[in-house]
Design goal:
By secondary structure, the chain is of the alpha/beta class. The chain has three domains: about 40 residues; about 190 residues, D-Maltodextrin-Binding Protein, domain 2 (3-Layer(aba) Sandwich); about 90 residues, Periplasmic binding protein-like II (D-Maltodextrin-Binding Protein, domain 2, 3-Layer(aba) Sandwich). Helix 8 links the parallel strand 6 and strand 7. Helix 12 crosses helix 17. The longest helix has 24 residues.
Length: about 350
């Protein structure tokens, strides 16, 4: 229709129109305006969401494969980062609309003028993160006086602190070496360190190759390693509708995981260059972020509030992360409560 109107303009352009010509031009302008208005309202809304490679985040790729985002009127661009610290940094600098990260990382995000807002829980680690030790080390208590790899200020640091606290090991009794996940796995294979905090699938793969002992995983407790979707106060205000549609799409994905897991795992695995069975094994160490989990997380006195307080205490008790904890992290249940009430299978 727009092309036909353009042809009409070319035919009348350059001539002084008569009354009918004026009417035709006015009608054409109205049609063009309405057509453009309809086109804009129907075109997908765009979101840029940052994340690292991690099964709990990668599961969202099914929203692309199954055209779930498209049906929700969205175009989602997932932006990959090497580590969660860079993801939250990009978010707070305004380069992203939202980020997949951990509650811990949000609380340690760089200072900024805008404030972070936690909008949804994606999963809770329940075996996906753990501590691998050399064969002679059998328990977390045996880590006293040992050298343990964890990336300071990251979620692996949190996993270590959780484990030490649970086993009544003073944080100062353990030497932490500041290594990323991949480097930590390499160092433990080289026998250069006593233990390392790793996440799946590196955790299981390295345990097998070194014949080491997995002496702790997040399955052993109600873990503080909670993955969340976070945005900023200004972005929530400007893009509330798009964020809401994404959250509805997320619950569509979670429903698919519950009702047709093989299809989901095969589709996501194919995008990652894995088999469906391999990806399913990686995802198995997580409590999925369905409506039931989010209801627990965002209840007035829910798990997110208590986890925030516990994480703050760990940060204060072990200042080796070298970062300043944010005091302005907001856990806002308004949007998620609306979405959970609206979503239908």
């Amino acid at each position: 229709m727009i092309e036909l109107l353009r042809i009409g303009w070319r035919q009348t352009w350059g001539r002084r129109p008569g009354c009918f010509g004026l009417f035709a031009i006015a009608l054409a302008l109205t049609l063009v305006t309405n057509a453009c208005s309809v086109g804009f309202s129907q075109s997908p809304k765009s979101l840029r969401i940052g994340m690292v490679v991690f099964p709990g985040y990668d599961i969202a790729l099914y929203g692309e494969t199954a055209e779930i985002f498209k049906r929700r009127g969205l175009r989602v661009d997932f932006v990959r980062f090497d580590n969660a610290l860079d993801t939250t940094r990009a978010l707070m600098r305004g380069s992203l609309d939202a980020a997949f990260t951990t509650l811990w990382d949000v609380m340690l995000a760089d200072p900024s003028e805008d404030s972070p807002v936690v909008l949804m829980a994606l999963d809770i680690s329940a075996g996906s993160d753990g501590i691998l030790a050399q064969p002679a080390i059998k328990t977390v208590a045996d880590l006293r006086g040992k050298m343990v790899a964890a990336k300071l200020g990251s979620s692996t640091h949190l996993t270590l602190l959780e484990a030490l606290k649970a086993h009544q090991v003073n944080f100062s009794e353990v030497e932490i070496v500041d290594y990323s996940n991949d480097v930590a796995a390499q160092k433990i294979e080289e026998r250069a360190i006593d233990a390392a905090v790793l996440w799946e699938p590196v955790l299981s793969e390295t345990a097998q190759s070194t014949q080491g002992n997995i002496i702790h995983t997040t399955k052993d407790l109600d873990s503080l390693t909670i993955d969340v979707m976070v945005s900023t106060k200004s972005t929530v205000k400007a893009h509330k509708a798009e964020l809401q549609q994404f959250m509805l799409a997320w619950f569509d994905v979670m429903h698919a995981v519950e009702t047709q897991p093989l299809n989901v795992f095969n589709a996501v695995g194919a995008q990652l260059g894995q088999t469906g069975a391999s990806f399913a094994g990686d995802y198995a160490g997580l409590k999925q972020g369905n409506i039931a989990l989010n209801q627990r997380m965002f209840a007035p006195d829910g798990r997110l509030k208590s986890a925030q307080a516990e994480i703050a205490q760990l940060i204060n008790d072990d200042p080796r992360n070298g970062r300043v904890m944010r005091q302005d992290v907001e856990i806002d249940a308004t949007l998620i409560n609306h979405v959970m009430a609206e979503w239908k299978p």
